[in-house]
Every structure is written in structure tokens, then in C-alpha cells.
Amino acid sequence: MINCHFHDDRSSDGVDPLERHCAAAVDAGVRHVCVTNHAEVMGPDGSWSADLEEMRGRFAAVLESVRACRELFPGLDVRLGIELEYRREWTDTFDRLTSEVPFDFVLGSVHIVDGFNVSGGPDRNRFFVDRPQSVAYTRYFEEIEEMLGWGGFDVVSHFDLVKRYGHGHYGGYDPAPFESRIRPCLERMADRGIGIEINTSGVFGPGTPYPERQILEWARQAGVPYLTIGTDSHEPAVFSHGLPEGIRLARTAGWEDFTVFEGREPVVRVPVSEAEAWASQRAGDAESPEIQQ
What we know:
Blueprint (H helix, E strand, L loop, with lengths): L1 E2 L14 H11 L3 E7 L2 E2 L5 E2 L2 H21 L4 E9 L5 H10 L4 E5 L2 E2 L2 E2 L15 H18 L4 E2 L6 H8 L8 H14 L2 E5 L13 H10 L4 E4 L12 H10 L4 E6 L2 E7 H11 L11
Parallel strand pairs: 1-2, 2-5, 5-6, 6-9, 9-10, 10-11
Antiparallel strand pairs: 3-4, 7-8, 12-13
């Protein structure tokens, strides 16, 4: 089993050193992990910044922790990743950072739309006020499309994250009305060799992983080359939460395997069937809630 998206205490929103997250992975029977701390840093006023020197030094320290954990946990495959928050003004800095630090895996994500953080913070609901769902979600997918125009990453993280707090305003959503926005994104991802992630943190928010099954089916049909999976956990206690639901989602969407990256290249394929065996052994079908469709 794998977890290719989690944050330790070198992420502004994470807690506990990498060693404790790796211990949680071993306890859960997870074999491949990739720590993906946020590139940017949150200041005392809640704003985020991306300073090249600060990031270079911080991720050099994370790399040392990765190497130390490989020694401490010889049966665990530990890799260095990063999550890049898309903002136009940061892309050149991020390109320099990823060219200088030997990352194994780079996630690209959208959290900010029209100046609003749609995924958290004290103003997380302001984006949705006085906007119908059709407008709010369309703007989010437009931002995904713009991020793909940059393309300085390996996999798109939590493709429909906008539903995290959007569901509190509008209820659930059907991707079909947004198909004309979503499919071009997936086709560009296929053309550029960019993968898509199942992010299981959504199981404990809107009730389903990110993205919805329909989007994963469209991604497979479009030829998106890679599927990864991660919990987006920020503390060891929830390191493996939602993985059984994410595995079942991959199967029902028709995907056959998950991918693990090394040196920004896909090197390991984990069959979904093997991941399902892990989920059955760890939790048991009766203990894992069904995916809400």
C-alpha cells in the first residue's frame, strides 16, 4: 500500500516530525510513502509566501529526514515530495526550486480562486457567498486549467477540492454540468504526461474522496497516464485514514494500478487488486464505510 501525500511538521499546517509519520505508516502496513510538505509558508497574519532561500533550506532539511527515516525503517520506501500551490507569481520560483532540490514527486494544487482560499482558513466560505454553484465551480476548474498551462508538477492533487466547503453551501454536486471544463483539463494532462490523484481526505469532509468517480472515469478515458493516492494527512494519528475508500473508488472507476514516483519518474506500479487485499486485511470490509456516490 502507498501514501503519496502527507505533511509533517515542516509544513506550516503539519505536526510531528517525519519519523512519527513513518512509524504510523509501518503500523498501518503501508510500504511506500512520500512526504509532500507545502512549498509556501504561512506567516503570523495568515498570509502565505514563497521565498526561494527559505524553501531551499527547509527542503534540504526534509531530505535529511527522509534519508534518516530510510535507515530507521528499512522495510519502508520513504521518498521526498512537495506540494506546490499554484499562483502565477510563484511559478518561476517553484521551477527554480524543483530544479535544484532532488524531489521524487511534485504535486500541483489549487487552493486560491479570485483571491479567496476555498480550502480552509477563517474566510473559507466567502468565495461561495452570492455565487451559484455553476459559477463557483466553473471558476475553480478554470484555475485548474490555467495551472496546467504552467505544468511544473507531476500530478494534479485533489482535482475537485472546491467541493470541500462548497458542499456546505450547495450540497453535493454532479460533475456532468462541468464536463466541458473538466474534460479539456484531463486531455491536457494526458498530452503533458501529468497524472491525477485520489485524495482520501475528502472522505471526512464532503463524504467522498477527491475527485468524484465520474472525473476519474473521464481521466482514464482521456489517457491520463498515472493515478496516485494519498491521505493528505497532517498528523500521524490519521496517516492512513480513507485509504480503503480511495482504493474502492479507483476500482469502480476502472483504474488498474497506482503509481509511485522516484526522481520525478514513475517507477513502481501497485495493482489496485493488491491494494484491495491490504484494505481487507487491515480494516475488513465491514469496518470500511461505503463510498457515497
